[in-house]
Amino acid sequence: ETRKVTLTAAGRQLAEATNQGFNIIQAGIDKVTAKDKLINVATTSSFAALVLIPALHHFYQQFPEITVNITSGEQLTTDNFTLPVRFGIREQQNKADIIKSEQFNLFSAPHVTEKFSNNESVIIYTTKWKNNAFPKAPLEDWLALNALQNKQVVVKYFDQELFGIQQALLENAYVFCSNTLTQGYLQAGLLKELNTQAIDSAFCYYIENKQKNTTRHNHMFIEWLDNLML
User: What is the pTM of this model?
Assistant: First the structure.
């Protein structure tokens, strides 16, 4: 004869509490696991729009299980859970944090490039950053390096590189900016680099406290970004 086993009232209460406890633990594990697969990145608007976002599909092809959340802006506020990719002065950064030292050159739409030497006067867009601690874009040094200091140049400014590139394309003008930010436009055939000598700048992109961002997925993203910047 099969015996029927039933829980006492106290036993049922204990079983329910135990089951609830396991559910809470599992929910916590699921939350931690999901958070571990999310990478929060904070960077400048131009770097996000011109470099990171266009390249993300390559990252997802390599790491489909990871989600990248990008926050952009010129005034970056970060926390211990956010990977900060910043633009700054190279000499002020830890060398190990730097992912790209910036060179500048002149760019334009392909059909405008060849007109540069023939035009007596040209319009050049470049950047005047909101951060007053930043030095100027090295346009004057670049003109001297390329023996163009006597050329008639009308310089116009935006506070973000992205706007200067877009306006130069709209006006059939030229833009003086970093090689890093133009790579996508160059590959798409929208921009062409002039046959002039690029100049080193005081600027770089860096990840603050790069060595401390050691979670497994952060490490994957940093390694991927380092390769992207080569």
Answer: 0.82
